[in-house]
Fold this protein.
Amino acid sequence: MKKRRIVVSVTTDLVTDQRVHKVCTSLYDAGFDILVVGREMKSSLPIGQRSYATKRFKLWFEKGALFYAAFNARLFFFLLFVKADILLANDLDTLLPNYLVSRLRRIPLAYDNHEYFTGTPELLKRPVVYGVWKTIERNIFPKLKYIYTDNDAKQKLFEDEYDVPVKVVKNVPMYHPVMEAKEITIQFPKDKKILIYQGTGINIHRGTEELTEAMQYLDDSYILYFIGSGDVINVLKEKVQELKLQDKVIFTGKVPFQELQQYTRHAHLGFTLDKPISDNYIYSLPNKLFDYVHAGVPVIAARLQEVEKMINKYNIGAFIPSHDPQHIAATIKEAFETPGRLEEWKRNLPIAAQEVNWQNEEKVLVEIYKNIVLEN
């Protein structure tokens, strides 16, 4: 049978996008020919060896309206002529050129809509920009046939709004019954309680400012690592200077995935503290939650419905009563000082990882694309 080629579009630089990497690896292993198109920024790391092909656009602009306009125009003309049997658009910021080319070339289009893009706080504060993206979504989404998102809450949200079926493929790690022994290349303080907040979107309203401030209410046995990047990193660094927390809060910036795993697996607590101030956060199920789970790290979280459902089902962490820094600090201390609490959570984490993992989710993913082949 002919090997079908899927051309995957995403606005990330591919290096740290583990969700796209998992999807593409699974589809490649299922017999598809994969080409992933992203972007290369000045700060981008080398992609490294992958089983599938990649291409990154170099653009003059790296953010804002000019970036999105340039990327979408470049992507449109690239897709117009590249060999492709199926197009895969990742999120709303790649949907328009994919949709136009799919219609012009009569190529089936799949839409991986893992983010409620028009519900992000950054867009809600900019009504003109919001209006542009919402117009694109309203005009294209109801016409799509192959759509999937990353949790049940978003599935219901999209189906209620656009009255089209949406499948769920959770963005979760691969399950390994026994954690692989990795070469340790990072020296961790042995006498510290290690706290970690990780992600490529350390942005506004994710509770990181309050988490940083909470460190002033914890003694010197605690150390907090921010692993990744985002638009509030400089704000956090200023706050650390202001509160004289340089010895208690560490910023690593972006790190390769293997290095990230070392940080995560050595942590005692992981954090996901998004505020319920926009639909994108309210209906989210952050990737970092599952990264912590599969690394055997208990979680301190804000109460968002999908996060709360996961943590309560498996009893793998606790919730902050509010985003007040003193309340966050008290929740952290309680986790460490309550006899047997951390041990109980750690016993439950492998159970959660065994049930919620990529081996299960990729079956749903591959079935979607096999159906696309059969129907086209």
